[in-house]
Amino acid sequence: MGIDQVQLNFNPTTLTILNVIIGFIMFGVALDLKPSDFKRTFSTPKPMLIGLTAQFFLLPAFTFLLVSFIQPIPSIALGLFMIAACPGGNLSNFITYLSKGNTPLSISMSAVATVVAIFMTPVNVMFWGSLYPGTSELLRSFTIDPVEILFTIFLMLGLPLMIGMLVRYRYPLWAQKVNKGMKYLSIAFFILFLLAALASNFTYFLEYVGMVVLVVFLQNLIALLSGYFSARLFGLPEADRRAIAVEVGIQNSALGLVLIFNFFGGLGGMAIVAAWWGVWHLLSGLSLAAFWSKRDPHGAIPVSKEVQL
After folding, report:
1. What is the dihedral of CA 291, 117, 90, 99, to 10 degrees?
2. Alpha-carbon distance values, 95 to 48, 80, 103, 150, 278 (Å)
3. Are strands 295-296 and 301-302 parallel, antiparallel or unpaired?
4. What CATH number does the domain located at 3-308 have?
C-alpha cells in the first residue's frame, strides 16, 4: 500500500479534541501578553520584522528550494509546504525560555505571527504549492476554499488569542495566577495527544516514517538556521537571535495536521510529514535549548560555576 493510501486513525472527535487543545494553548499564550509587550514591539519593530520575514517568507522559499532539489513525492512535498506556511509552534515560548533567549520577544512574536498566519498560511500553501509541478496538480485535485481555511485558522488561533488578551486585561490578577499552570497543562495534554495518536497509528508510522525523516530533518535545520542567521545578519543581540531561531524552527504542526484533515482528506504523505514534525521539532528544540542553556547569551560562552558566582 502506498503512503497516500494510508488512512490515519483520526475521526471527527479526535480532531475536535486537537482543536480544543490548540485553542487552550493559544489562550495560555495570550494570558502572558501585556500592553507593554506590544509597546516594546512597535517602539523597536526591527526584531519582530526580521522574525516574521524569516517565518513567512524565507522558510517557505527555502522549503521550495529543498523540495525542488530532493523532489519527494507530491503529497510529502505539499506536507512540507503546509508546515512551512504555519506560524510558530506552541512550545516555542517555553523552549526560548530554556534557551535563555528573549522570552518577551518570543511571546510577542507568537501572538503577532498567529494573527499574520490567518492570512499568510493559506496564501503560502496555495502560492508555493502551485509553483511546484507535482503539488500544483495535487492542489487541483482538491476543492479548496482559501477563505474557509482563513476562517478555520481564525477560530483555532485568532479567537482564543483575543479572548485570552481580554481576560488578561479585565482580570489581570486571575490571569497571573492561572497562566503558568494552564500553559504547562495544555502543553502536557498536547504531548499526550501526540503520543496517543502515534500509538494508534504505530504500524503505519513505522512503515512510512523513513520516507520523511530526512526531509523533515533538513527543513527543520533550515528553519532554525534561517531564523538565527537572519537575526545575526541584521546585528540583533544573541538573546534575540535565539528567540527568532526557535520561533521559526518550532512550527505549529498541530495546526497543519488539522488543516490537512479538514481540507486535504488526511492525505497520507501530508499527514505523516506533519505528525513526524510534531515529534522531531520537540527533540531538536529541547536539544538546542540544552546546548544554549549552558551558554551565556550576553557573552555566548559556556556557563560555568565561576561565571555564575
Report:
1. 20
2. 18, 22, 9, 28, 14
3. antiparallel
4. 1.20.1530.20
Handedness of CA 256, 261, 264, 266 (dihedral sign): positive
Burial of 141 (0-12, 13-18, 19+ CB in 10 A): exposed
Q: What residue type is 304 in one-letter code?
A: S
List the chain domain ranges: 3-308
pTM: 0.84
CA atoms of 101 and 109, how far apart (whole Å): 13
CA distance 31 to 20: 17
| pLDDT tens-digit map of 219-276 | 999 999 999 999 999 999 999 999 999 999 999 888 888 888 888 888 888 988 998 8
87: Cβ contacts below 8 Å, ≥ 6 apart: 55, 110, 113, 114, 116, 117, 121, 157, 251, 252, 255
pLDDT in tens, 172-197: 888 888 877 777 787 777 778 777 77
Query: What is the Cα–Cα distance from 146 to 9, expressed in whole angstroms?
Result: 26
| Phi and psi at residue 102, to the nearest 5° | -80, 90
Closest CA to 94 of 286, 260, 280: 286
CA 129, CA 38: separation in Å to the nearest integer? 33
> Do 103 and 45 touch, CB atoms closer than 8 A?
no
How far from each other are the two terminal CA atoms of the chain, in whole angstroms?
60
